[in-house]
Amino acid sequence: MSRFASHRPARTFALALLAAATPALAENSVKGHFRIGDSRLEVSQGCAYRIAGDEPGSVQTLVYLSNAPLDCAAAETALDTEAALDSAVRDAEAGNVRILVGPDGSEGGLYFFLSEPFDSFNLSGSGDFAAAEAPAGQSTGSWKLAEPKEFFDKTYDFDLAWSLPLSDGPVRGEVLPAGGGEPGAALLAYVKATADDDRAAIKSLLAADVRREKFADEGSAWFEESWKMQRDWEMVEVAVLGGRIDGDRATLEITGKQGDGEKVRGRARLVREDGGWKFADRRLTITFD
Known about the structure:
Elements: H1 8-21, E1 29-36, E2 39-42, E3 45-52, E4 59-66, H2 72-76, H3 81-91, E5 95-101, E6 107-114, E7 119-123, E8 128-134, E9 138-151, E10 154-167, E11 174-176, H4 181-195, H5 199-204, H6 208-214, H7 221-230, E12 235-246, E13 249-258, E14 263-273, E15 276-286
Parallel strand pairs: 3-10
Antiparallel strand pairs: 1-2, 1-10, 3-4, 4-5, 5-6, 6-7, 8-9, 9-10, 11-12, 12-13, 13-14, 14-15
């Protein structure tokens, strides 16, 4: 069962809290802070997206707040929207607060990160939370813990509010079933070519820019040694759980196994070029089930 179970009375109460908590917050704005111990982050920038939920076909909202400038438009088309924003924050040596909001408006947890001095913290179930989606595609909400709570030898508190344009970029497009349709078939062919070490087939199944970069040094001694090492972390087995097509871009949810035997889970990106689907990128994490 998803952690975002539907509780309509709780949602009604949350919307009432929201109306009382954020009456002065201007549209397209962010304000507030998160503090734990001596680490404090003042947020002033933010992005909000609809993203895939825990259950197949479900959607939740990602609210991403920071003290660094964020390129919300670029992140919405990334293979992993949150990871793209994280990278920008770390490059800026800044900090962020990530909030998940379930389809019924309930909170799905908060994660705090600060680069300097380094600190991080996650929580759920503390303070007063309220969030709503305005008819115009705006995510508006607040989360406040006025009285500090103890965590070992530290205390923490926070007061966050946002009113942000809500992008559906990460979940835009046609839903693909298990197997992934034509993009899924192209991915399976690419993984088979990789497992067979069939370079001609691999080249034919790669997006043009990826192919140029991957094979730029082909024929050199360095390339051949690198090619052998790469096989350990290339996928040699894959199953497509589903995904989405948005124009000439497809994002697939996948599980599989790498050449070193590690089981993995993540996403693959394919693009349509010259009438066919080509492999462009993947983002994987090792699983232990």
